[in-house]
């Protein structure tokens, strides 16, 4: 019988969800005493491995039925990305909506501040306009904070679900793979797929929206700067463009420095540990 307590997020009200008030009891308990396993809440049904795996199976069945008449050679190589998108597309769209809203609100505050500065320089304007701008600045900052937190919360949940789906798929495949195929990869490589590689998908989901958000922010910033500074903005834009290949070169060098013999040594160590080579493990980890 499960000792977990029901997750209060499922029955939380709207205000409790947007302010994360449903999490306060856990934070307060953790402040008073160290949390133990029995204090943890149960996962939401939509976040459980069984639910996510079943959802992925349904999408795969629909895909197979749709492509039943197609030749195998025409099957897209990006089937994994397509399956993940169809399985988690709604939460991905929700996070994109909150990110777009947060980006728009980011540029609203400077415009309100501009109006407030012009208000202070014109003594003939009514006082209520200044109060209105101040209230709008506070409301925009509040909405920006709420939308940003909702965006990150959905990105983290999406990453957790993607990692869970991949780990379940790799584990299920490892149980039914043939002996000939099993010889092509070690146990350490399989464990690495379920841990490190699946974690990379989790990390990507936190920044996947930057692919369109960063260009959007750059374009809007250039437009507003052009309206204020005119052609002078091209100087800063030129410097930013010149930094792109430099940053790419530095990132490539950093990547090459990180990829070394340590990765192969790690796989070998994990593989031998899983094969009960305890003497090797003790020596290798001590070194």
From TrEMBL:
InterPro entries, per the entry: ABC1_TM_dom (IPR011527), ABC1_TM_sf (IPR036640), ABC_transporter_C-like (IPR050173)
GO cellular-component term (any): apical plasma membrane
UniProt keyword annotation of ATP-binding present: yes
Domain ABC transmembrane type-1: 95-258
A Pfam entry, by short name: ABC_membrane
Highest taxon above the source species: Eukaryota
GO molecular function: ABC-type transporter activity; ATP binding
TM region positions: 131-152, 207-227, 233-251
Keyword Nucleotide-binding: yes
Alphabetical UniProt keywords: ATP-binding, Membrane, Nucleotide-binding, Transmembrane, Transmembrane helix, Transport
Protein name: ABC transmembrane type-1 domain-containing protein
Organismal lineage: Eukaryota, Metazoa, Chordata, Craniata, Vertebrata
């Amino acid at each position: 019988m499960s000792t977990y307590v029901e997750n209060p997020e499922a029955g939380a009200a709207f205000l409790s969800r947007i302010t994360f008030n449903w999490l306060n009891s856990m934070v307060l308990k953790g402040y008073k005493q160290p949390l133990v396993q029995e204090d943890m809440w149960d996962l939401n049904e939509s976040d459980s491995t069984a639910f996510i795996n079943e959802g992925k199976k349904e999408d795969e069945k629909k895909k197979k039925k749709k492509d039943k008449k197609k030749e195998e050679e025409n099957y897209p190589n990006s089937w994994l990305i397509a399956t993940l998108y169809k399985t988690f597309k709604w939460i991905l769209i929700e996070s994109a909506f909150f990110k777009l809203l947060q980006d728009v609100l980011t540029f609203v505050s400077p415009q309100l501040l501009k109006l407030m500065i012009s208000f202070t320089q014109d003594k003939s304007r009514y006082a209520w306009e200044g109060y209105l701008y101040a209230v709008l600045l506070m409301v925009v900052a509040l909405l920006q904070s709420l939308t940003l937190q909702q965006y990150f919360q959905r990105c983290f949940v999406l990453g957790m679900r993607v990692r869970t789906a991949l780990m379940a798929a790799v584990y299920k495949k490892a149980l039914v793979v043939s002996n000939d195929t099993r010889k092509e990869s070690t146990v350490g490589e399989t464990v690495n797929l379920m841990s490190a590689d699946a974690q990379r998908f989790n990390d990507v989901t936190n920044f996947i929206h930057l692919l369109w958000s960063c260009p959007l922010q750059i374009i809007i910033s250039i437009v507003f700067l052009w309206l204020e500074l005119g052609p002078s903005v091209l100087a800063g834009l030129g410097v930013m463009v010149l930094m792109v290949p430099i940053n790419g070169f530095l990132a490539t060098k950093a990547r090459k420095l990180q990829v070394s013999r340590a990765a192969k040594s790690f796989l070998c160590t994990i593989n031998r540990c899983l094969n009960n080579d305890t003497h090797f493990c003790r020596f290798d980890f001590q070194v």
